[in-house]
Design goal:
CATH class: Alpha Beta
Pfam family, one: UPRTase
Keywords: Glycosyltransferase, Transferase
Organism: Streptomyces blastmyceticus
Number of helices: 6
Largest sheet: 8 strands, mixed
GO molecular function: glycosyltransferase activity
Distance between the termini: 33 Å
Helix content: 25-40%
Strand content: 25-35%
Protein name: Uracil phosphoribosyltransferase
CATH topology: Rossmann fold
CATH architecture: 3-Layer(aba) Sandwich
Length: 220
């Protein structure tokens, strides 16, 4: 599946540096200790958050430096909100709070219905003025894209402009990218890795396992 048309427009892939590959090597190791998984994945999450913030609108701001000169600077031009998809998305919340002090945080809980196999909304709590905000939606894994589509639609139903949604995603596959970008072409996706494909059980290949279970220590 070709996703070339989405790269650099809808999808913003972190530069595939040697450092990033080294970090991924640690956390993809099935024998990685949990403390290593958490530490090195949080380093990547910080990179993702910084890249997502860079996609937001800025306006000019001039300040005076300590030596009496003007500096032609910038400042963020709107209000911001983070929305992790519970539970795995909460693994990314700490790094967002670390760089955006006092940021408003909403929550969405969706799980796949065992009968219909479709995402089902169990809980949401969003700021009253979320329609006026730029939203960083946090979810580590974008596989089939079903949960992401449902979460984005929930944000749209609450008045958030599609172009104001930045989906911060740790790891994804071409199938998930195509699903989200075809339905919501104005949503921007920031990710650190694009896997080869999904297998017959919808697992990413070569993959990383269940991110939330490994991060929170509930893996078997």
């Amino acid at each position: 599946m070709s996703i070339e048309k989405y790269l650099g427009r809808n999808v913003h892939l972190l530069p595939q540096t040697n450092q990033l590959r080294a970090l991924h090597t640690v956390i993809r190791d099935r024998d990685a200790r949990r403390e290593d998984f958490v530490f090195y994945s949080e380093r990547i999450i910080r990179m993702l958050v910084e890249a997502g913030l860079d996609l937001l609108p800025f306006e000019e701001r001039i300040v005076e430096t300590p030596v009496g000169r003007e500096y032609q600077g910038l400042r963020f031009a709107g209000k911001l909100c983070g929305v992790p998809i519970i539970r795995a998305g909460e693994s990314m919340e700490g790094q967002l709070r670390a760089v955006c002090r006092g940021i408003r945080i909403g929550k969405i809980l969706m799980q796949r219905d065992k009968v219909t196999k479709l995402p089902k909304l169990y809980y949401s709590n969003l700021p009253d003025d979320i329609a006026e905000r730029h939203v960083l939606m946090l979810e580590p894994m974008l596989a089939t894209g079903g949960t992401a589509l449902a979460a984005i639609q929930l944000l749209l139903d609450h008045g958030v402009a599609e172009e104001n949604i930045v989906f911060i995603n740790f790891i994804t596959v071409p199938e998930g990218i195509a699903t989200v970008c075809e339905r919501y072409p104005k949503v921007k996706i920031v990710t650190s890795a694009i896997e080869e494909r999904l297998n017959e059980n919808a697992y990413m290949m070569p993959g990383i396992g269940d991110f939330g279970d490994r991060f929170f220590g509930t893996d078997k």
